[in-house]
Amino acid sequence: MNERILVNPVTKEKVRLLAIAAETNGAYSMNEGLMLPDGVNSLHYHRILTQTFTALERPLHLYLEGKRVIRLEEGESHTVSPGVVHGMFNPTKFTVRYRLLTTPGNAGFENMLRILAGIAEEDKVNTNGLPTDSTTTALLMEMGDTYFMNTLPFLTPWLKWKAWQARKKGVAKELLLKYCSSWT
């Protein structure tokens, strides 16, 4: 697998990493993606990351705040601020091409994407594309500044504890070594 191309068969996405945080001195990360028909990524939010979605080919659909849907036509963009619940989906019969600019650049977010693609290929995710293992979910949420809405809010302290415990046991190191070791 090309380390710059991530394929997630569950969310039906193929992402090409155009620029990673290490190359932009942390200013931004940029991906270009393809989402197949019926593709979807889980509702989530970020505490520090701002994301700008741009439809490049065919309309791109975004869920916002868990209830509002917007449709971006080719060339249109929408910026999602930290704390705003969002997710992408493709309800059409066509493949959608989009660009995602994430600021600031975040190696943890990039590693989270890489790990999610790897464990999805190994069938270690649920139908929403989230890890079946709560420890991995906890680590990825923390690592990627990505808080999945499928995770009940009252579980957040427990998930933080799970992530701390897993880091202490070296699980984070193992995931990074297995799925992210070839990153430059």
Task: Describe the structure concisely.
This protein is 27% helix and 30% strand.
Account of the protein in words:
By secondary structure, this protein is α+β, with helices and mostly antiparallel strands. Helix content is 27%, strand content 30%. The protein contains four helices and eleven strands. It has helices at 107-121, 134-143, 156-169, 171-180; strands at residues 5-8, 13-19, 29-35, 44-45, 50-57, 60-64, 68-72, 77-80, 86-89, 96-103, 147-148. The strands form three sheets. Strands 1-2-3-10-5-8 form a six-stranded antiparallel beta sheet, with helices on one face. A hairpin with a 3-residue loop joins strand 6 (60-64) and strand 7. The two termini are 15 Å apart. The model has no long low-confidence stretch (mean pLDDT 92).
From the N-terminal CA to the C-terminal CA, the straight-line distance is: 15 Å
Q: Can you write the helix and strand succession as a string? A: EEEEEEEEEEHHEHH
In terms of structural class, how would the helical and strand content be classed?
A: alpha+beta
Global Rg: 16 Å
Give the strand content.
Answer: 25-35%
- Poorly predicted residue ranges: none
Let me know the average pLDDT.
Answer: 92
Strands, total number: 11
- Oligomer state equals single chain
The major β-sheet equals: 6 strands, antiparallel
**Which geometry do the CA atoms define?**
globular
**Approximate helicity band:** 25-40%
Number of helices: 4
Give the strand order of the largest sheet, numbering strands 1, 2, ... along the chain: 1-2-3-10-5-8
